[in-house]
Amino acid sequence: MQTVEDYLSFLHTKGFKLSEEAQGFIMFGQGYTGASDGIVNVAIEATIKHQLQFDGSYFVALLERLKEEEITDKKSAKAFMQKLQA
């Protein structure tokens, strides 16, 4: 599984540089919800795709929703995100 730090480094190599504030939101959201790295990475990706930039409040709300839905693995999280888009 790719760690959050590895995923952020990957985004950086693709030209998507997150601010320290955004990285703080990510760490806060992960700690607040107890989400795994895989779930956090899916939420980061979905936030960027849906908002066209990183929006910290959207990201935290998304993590909270995943927790409410009791989604604990990356595959289920991706399926849930696709369901939200439909």
UniProtKB/TrEMBL annotation:
Pfam families per the UniProt record, alphabetical: DUF6123 (PF19618)
Top-rank taxon: Bacteria
Listed InterPro entries: DUF6123 (IPR046126)
Protein name as annotated: Group-specific protein
Organism this protein belongs to: Bacillus mycoides
